[in-house]
Write a structure and sequence with these properties.
The protein is of the alpha+beta class and 242 residues long. The chain has two domains: 76 residues, no CATH class; 142 residues, Aminopeptidase. The chain has a ten-stranded mixed β-sheet with strand order 1-2-3-10-4-9-8-7-6-5, with helices on both faces. β7 and β8 form a beta hairpin. The longest helix has 15 residues. It is globular. The N terminus is likely disordered. Bound molecules: coenzyme A (COA). The site of coenzyme A has 18 residues, from β8, α5 and α6.
């Protein structure tokens, strides 16, 4: 029978477009009901994302060469992240006294985020609010000691069982190289160890040498786990520099 084995594809406006990290402009192919090897279905997803005025479709894979079929439909690697971890030995705490962050600090954290991280890694205020309110997450801020308004730096962590994660670290550009990033990371490690973590992990961009140097000095080592993020730009490609 003609066409009996022809696959039926949903109309574009019925294609489900799951968001990546709650970002309205970015669609996650990993979470879509689409097989990434099914070129036609991926193209439909891209077309639907275009109709919905999304900027980017992403697909993350920890498998080397895992995204290759996507190359044929306009995807290219846009980011590579690596995981580092350290054992549970303690560190001498510094003399900083960061403020615990809550939902009232969300907007200023997001502002600092936007000037410190590339577009891909921005958090929305909604996402950050959800994060700081979740029971497993903790974040701390450092403010200028001269009493000026604003935020010098922040760090955020979560713990899942005996693994602690340093999720985020950012220091305002004018306040870098003074030890704030190191001091906040030590504060975060100390908190995670005291709350029961036996292993502490974090991820960072493969080319973020400054952050990797800082983490190496505090005992973190790459553990071999890497994730490539493939992207298909619908809008203008965004710069990786913040
Ligand atoms: C990565 C980042 C957090 C580092 O913060 P920082 O406050 O500059 O870090 P520190 O000052 O503790 O350490 C950085 C450097 O200052 C030096 N330093 C530390 N204390 C110092 C001091 N008291 N006086 C002078 N220099 C000092 C360190 O030797 C280090 O040198 P190196 O990076 O060249 O090896 C910051 O650059 C940043 O926010 N980057 C953008 C966001 C980002 O990449 N976050 C990490 C994502 S995983």
């Amino acid at each position: 029978m003609i066409g009996a084995d022809r696959k039926m594809y949903p109309a574009r406006n019925t294609v489900h477009l799951p968001l990546w990290r709650h970002r309205r402009e970015i669609v996650s192919l990993n979470e879509a009901d689409v097989d990434p090897r099914d070129t036609r279905a991926v193209q439909d997803l891209i077309a639907a994302a275009g109709d919905a005025r999304k900027e980017l479709v992403v697909y993350s894979t920890s498998v080397r060469a895992g995204g290759e079929p996507l190359g044929a439909v306009g995807f290219a690697p846009i980011e590579e992240i690596l995981e580092m971890e350290r054992p549970s030995d303690g560190l001498t705490r510094g003399n900083i006294v960061p403020t615990a962050a809550d939902e009232t600090h969300v907007n200023e954290i997001v502002r600092l985020d936007h000037v410190c991280f590339p577009w891909l890694w921005w958090n929305t205020a909604e996402e950050m609010a959800r994060y700081v309110q979740s029971v497993d997450a903790h974040a701390w801020l450092l403010r200028p000691i001269d009493g000026n308004l604003g935020l010098d730096a922040y760090v955020a962590v979560t713990r899942s069982g005996t693994t602690g994660y340093v999720d985020r670290l950012a220091v305002a550009a004018t306040r870098r190289s003074c030890g704030l990033g190191t001091a906040l990371t030590i504060h975060a490690i100390d908190h995670l160890l005291r709350s029961g973590a036996r292993r502490i992990a974090l991820t960072t961009q493969h080319d973020n040498v400054r952050a990797q140097n800082l983490y190496s000095r505090l005992g973190f080592r790459p553990n071999g786990f890497r994730v490539t993020i493939w992207g298909h730009w619908i809008g203008q490609p965004r710069d990786r520099t913040p």
